[in-house]
Amino acid sequence: MRSTIRLRQTVIRLMFFWFLAVFFVIILSPRYKLKKTATYTPEKTIPEWDIEIFENRLVRMQLFPVAEQRQMIKIVFGKQPELKEFILERFNLTGNGSNVGGRMANRLGTKVEIAGQNVADIPNRRTKYVLNTEDNCTYQSPFVLILVHSRWSNVDRRYFIRNSWASIKSYNNYTIKTVFLLGLPSDGLSGEKQKTIVREYRECDDIVQGEFVDEYRNLTIKHLMAYQWTLSHCRRVAFVVKVDDDTIVNVFRLIEFLTSADNILSRKNDVIYCSAFVNQGPRRDERDKWFVSKSEYSQDKYPTYCEGFAYITTLDVMARIHNASLVTPAFWIDDVFVTGVLAKAAGVRHKQFQRFYGYTIIGRRLPEHLIKRNLFFLQKHFINDTIMVGMWKKIFDQYKLKT
């Protein structure tokens, strides 16, 4: 009996020393040293996107990684062969196609796609800035960033916003920043119309203007430019709000909601909070202003998408949607494309505005009890400046703030 116990103990000791020896052999081997030296540190300067070719196949990198991956992991196979070998072996990335990207995504928390596409087939969605506010989020990151989509000619609306709800820069010690997104007037960069925008920009320093004509069919470009700018310039903002310039934001209620237990966005990183359209389809009547041909959109139903006047989201959601836009053919109705088609492709869900945290349509009369409970107020089909000014005064007075 004792001899059997001693034999077992001897075998266990031998196995222990054998595993220890193998471990040190592996650690000290040149192969392992190569892998250690090939580890990659993300660059301090985050490029906006990157497309590389590997073995005649396109490799699309996710440039703004979601969740904890706050810096881009840039893998340039061709220029760093040791890094290529390290990545392929370290993560067991063998074979071609979507399985490779899937395994990489599971291990890195970022997304790599390898597809049999030519680079020319990938739309270049990078919009150049004609004007870019210097008062960005570099030095002080706001709690909430409000992106106002505005036509270049809507100067009066922008000044109304600046003098009303956008004048509130902080509430309950939470900071708010507002930026206006514009395109070019029809006479281009050198015309008199552009000169008026430049003067407004120099006075207010809150405009981001893209190098595209500001017309309805280019709203998708403006929408994606807003995402591009936010992801590049406001990387630490907690929440992002998109509104049109005919919408009043109850910034006081907004802060109360975003800091409350009711805020689903603080618990989920895949949600857009909005007034969502479900089971809506394209209009096929050629006489309709919103006519969409089969060649523009072939399906009978749109994915669930947000009404364009306002929605709330996070940087993680914007990153997902931005990345999906890099390989998705564009569609001119921006609300459908960005918050519908791209959101679906990116795995983003829609959360309908909740009771007491939603919106209302304003007219000449609005019950007082509706004012303090809503986040957004809008006018449909017409804009009456007097009503808009009166609406803001009612909101402001309810919170009993001094001007």
UniProtKB/TrEMBL annotation:
Give TM regions: 12-32
Query: How does this protein sit in the membrane?
Result: Single-pass type II membrane protein
Pfam families tied to this protein: Galactosyl_T (PF01762)
Q: Does the keyword Glycoprotein apply?
A: yes
UniProt main location, coarse: Golgi
Family affiliation:
Belongs to the glycosyltransferase 31 family.
The GO molecular function terms of this record are: hexosyltransferase activity
**Keyword list, A-Z:** Glycoprotein, Glycosyltransferase, Golgi apparatus, Membrane, Signal-anchor, Transferase, Transmembrane, Transmembrane helix
Can you say what this protein is called?
Answer: Hexosyltransferase
E.C. numbers = 2.4.1.-
Organism listed in the record: Paralvinella palmiformis
Q: Which GO terms describe its biological process?
A: protein O-linked glycosylation
Please state where this protein is localized. Golgi apparatus membrane
Query: Is tRNA-binding given among the entry's keywords?
Result: no
A GO CC term attached to the entry = Golgi membrane
Its top-level enzyme class, in one word, is transferase
